[in-house]
Amino acid sequence: MYNIPASFRKAKNYYLSLLEKSPRFLHWIISPSLILFGAFIVNAIIILLCGYNPFKAYVAAFLGSFGSPRAIGETLVKSTPYLMTGLSVAIAFRCGIWNIGAEGQFLLGALAATFFGTKVATLLPHTSWIAVPICLLLAVLAGGVWGVIPAVLKVTRGVNEVISTIMLNYIAIHFVSLMIDGGPLQEASKTGPQSDPIVQWVTFPRLFDSHRVHPGIVIAVVLAIVLTFALFRTTFGYQIRAVGEGADAAKAAGFSVAYNTIRVFILSGALAALGGAIELMALTPRLTESFSPGYGYTAIAVALLAKLHPLLTIATALLFGALSKGAFAMEAEVGISKQVTWMMQAILLLFVVGFGYLALFQKHHQTN
Amino acid sequence: MDFIEFFEDIISATIRGATPLLIAALGEVVSQRAGIINIGIEGMMLIGALFGMMGSFYASGLPFVAPWIGLLVAGISGLVTAAIFAYFAINLRGDQVVIGTAITLFALGLTEVIYRQLFGETGSPQSVVNFKEFDVPILSQIPLLGQAFFSHNIVVFLAVILVPCVYFFLYHTQQGLRIRACGEHPKAIATVGSNVSLLRTLCILFAGTMAGIGGGYLSLADVPYFIPEMTAGRGFIALAIVIFGKWHPTKVFGAALLFGLGFALDNRFQASGLGIQYQWFLMLPFVLCLAVLAGFVGRAEAPLALGRPYDPSE
User: Fold this and answer.
1) Does 1.10.3470 match the CATH number of domain A28-41+54-363?
2) φ/ψ (deg, to 5) at B273
3) How many CA atoms within 13 Å lie on the side-chain side of B269?
4) Which domains, from first to last, does chain B contain?
5) What is the pTM (predicted TM-score) of this model?
6) What residues 153-212 of chain A have any CB closer than 8 A to a CB of chain B?
7) ipTM of this complex prediction, to 2 decimal places
């Protein structure tokens, strides 16, 4: 019988030897591309087994996400939440913090923006130049608070952040529901489980008339560049990476693991929350219970595929944006459920883990 | 509704709601005791729910055994999913959190794609033969509480019987001791000649089977059909139950009942139109779980080697 585990091991060894031979700067491109390629093939096989034509599906997805200026614009729009939550996860994982809580932090950011946009903004001058920054700041605060809880629990009580952030995700989901379904943020007419739309001067304008491209995309890309600089060119970033590569080494170098854990958790929470606020302010003026289709979990795939590098995260976020945009075209033209993208993300993640793509984090996971 | 009727109703709903959580959580207890944190439990439940329904659907010619076949298929589908998990977590020593997330995402996609392909998306969900409630002879005739406690489908009783079984296995057998040692100090148990990788793999497979059956309960006993994303976070709740139950089967039983009560109250309060918002009840278990973890409500010690891949060559 054909031995699948053995051939997988062979493929892995071949991949590792290929990496060894190639120049170092190419690693950033080679390994994600290979993993992507492998995942696309496995996904195609599963699509085939489910009774669809994978070739047709991929072509439809590609044309749907990059086939026209309009489609490209929409892909960019869809990429933004992935980029923001991806950055949030990347920065946390870099520090050895397993923040699975981007989902909850994303929601809390959107909730803060909703609160500001429906209740507070009307009391302030009706100009975007004042309202938008305050709104974003409030979201950052909310995300920071949601990030500091698991951080403090981890530092003072030794609570595993994987578990605590999952719990906090559910608390956030139910808290959002509490607020918009029967709570103070529900729409004034009390008909459905959703908020009122945020007022016009808290929303982002569209950059073009024809599609939904908005300034939030620019904010996200700028943040990715700033984070890259911070991570690799400042002592702040050096401390984060040192702690991530080993708590003992960091301690020996005189860096406080506790202090870095707390500030990185706050930063990570703030980034995800900012993503939630941007999504709300730019696209959906109302907060609903289905506001996030699991951005926070997909973000883990986005960040890991980008090798936790903020710049590369731009590329992987774009890929995931294209996948989710392309999935609509796939559903329309081939009939396959658009949730197939989840499968794709999962296979990508398994490849990332299986190929020892991030040996670093297998070694230093959960060093309390 | 008079008070006694309301009380009976709450107890009955609590038990029904707790059962799938209990089944999945018992599997998770064993795997976490062996040092494996299986976040993929949510995905395994979802896959179990779909395949359980499909099993019963295709066996509908045999109405008497159809739900049993469904439950069997649900268990097997969970087992197969767990085998993927085990391969990546044990053989390739990948990070369990990432693999678990991947499994859950995979299940979300796969179940939707298969369900839509087989049953389409329009109209009401496909109904299948499900487990029927039955009255336990004599016991269900006890006044006041008989109906609430002893009028359920058979899986409920099986799940309750499973609690002492898992307890006995973990605490009173040699294999149970070895498994617990795997989760605390795998090196030590390897030194005395046990195969850590094998033990952990078996525990993952057991957890996967249980999660699959727990998921199958949802589409075979709770309701007689499957709808996409029907687990709605129950896998993660089972994870919370394991912690809340301090990694101990009998305490996990208590924790599952508490979470089941949360669900039951939630539904009743949604219907009753009282002043309290039902979401508080949904949120409470997770808050309690955090409190337990933080040691505010009794200290819980996680297995020492939880989540750490074991490398025999080290």
Assistant:
1) yes
2) 70, 30
3) 16
4) 3-131+144-294 (1.10.3470)
5) 0.86
6) 153, 157, 159-160, 162-164, 166-171, 173-175, 177-178, 181-183
7) 0.82
